[in-house]
Write a structure and sequence with these properties.
The protein is 50% helix and 11% strand. The protein is α/β, with parallel strands linked by helices and 330 residues long.
């Protein structure tokens, strides 16, 4: 198969990181910005970053050469997208900037080129208003830092074609990452979940229940410790959905509206589908695989603890310890 030709429009931190992983994945990538000078400056930054990443063992030994071979700074947006089969827009999260950029991309790109936006908050249907033939347009949302976070949201709007979604999946696969296809709603999924956690955490600190440092410690060392291996539904299934329903009822004694029992959870409990212990739940993990699942879970958690020990405390933890923080709730 011919080498894929890709353009990334927006050469800043996010766009540059996306360009890196696409080029390392073997695509020929044209990097564009408001001027060739800016694109060239950011290309040099990306090559310098790659040298450090290689030295730190984060990129493969041949990464810098692969980037030199596959990544170029384009003189203009129009030049970058002229022969591209896929274009990733990664300009600032300002709708007017995105609309004007998408119009330029749409006008200059091949008619069948798929266009993805790295927006994290703007509805894809709203951005699609600036794209000619919007069936070829969708959200392809990488996370920061793009070279190292392995998940990508793929967000079609109502008019996105099935073929476009498959192209986007292929682009994500090219980078070695995992795609999750979600609907076009405010916040999509990633930020809706992320900000829900932050909102509750902020209220805990505002109410004087715990300090920011202690909240971070609890998240990192308890339920957050599980999240690299299991999502919220797998965790709930393993805990028992009847246990979750009971905990919701307890929370409702103080927070009746904020912690109303989700109907989808109550329906499963009422049907006797309680998770792994009954063989059916959100994920329908067979009961006979419970021992295997528990063995994997325990091995994973011990491995994570070992990794964290090997890495040592983060600069955030070190600064907190030096400042004597972590116990005050004021």
């Amino acid at each position: 198969m011919a080498q894929r030709s890709v353009a990334v429009v927006g050469s800043g931190y996010m766009g540059g990181g996306i360009a890196q992983v696409l080029a390392l994945g073997g695509a020929k990538v044209a990097l564009a910005d408001v001027s060739q000078e800016i694109a060239e400056k950011n290309l040099e930054r990306l090559l310098g970053e790659a040298e450090r990443f290689v030295a730190d063992g984060l990129f493969p030994e041949d990464a810098v050469q692969r980037l030199r071979d596959n990544l170029r700074a384009a003189p203009s947006i129009e030049d970058a997208v002229a022969d591209a089969s896929y274009i990733e827009e990664a300009v600032p999260e300002v709708i007017d900037i995105k609309h004007s950029t998408l119009r330029r991309i749409s006008d200059a790109a091949p008619a069948d080129a798929v266009i993805g936006s790295n927006t994290s908050t703007i509805l894809i249907a709203t951005l699609a208003e600036a794209v000619e033939n919007p069936g070829r347009f969708l959200g392809v949302h990488f996370s920061n830092p793009a070279p190292f976070i392995p998940g990508v949201e793929v967000i079609p709007h109502a008019g996105t074609t099935a073929e476009t979604i498959e192209v986007a999946r292929g682009i994500v696969e090219l980078t070695g990452k995992k795609a999750a296809v979600v609907k076009d709603v405010t916040g999509f999924v990633l930020n809706r979940l992320q900000y829900a956690l932050f909102h509750e955490a902020a209220q805990v600190v505002e109410e004087g229940i715990a300090s920011a440092e202690d909240v971070d410690t609890l998240v990192r060392t308890t339920f957050g410790f599980r999240l690299p291996f299991f999502g919220p539904f797998a965790i709930a299934d393993m805990a028992g959905l009847d246990v979750y329903a009971f905990c919701y009822a307890s929370l409702q004694t103080s927070f009746p509206e904020r912690f109303a029992t989700p109907q989808i959870l109550q329906d499963l409990v009422d049907a006797g589908k309680l998770g792994t212990k009954s063989g059916e739940g959100f994920l329908d993990i067979p009961a006979e695989r419970t021992d295997e699942l528990v063995a994997y879970r325990n091995k994973a958690y011990v491995a994570m603890a070992g990794l964290l020990k090997d890495l040592g405390p983060s600069p955030v933890e070190e600064s907190t310890a030096e400042d004597g923080l972590g116990s005050s709730t004021s």
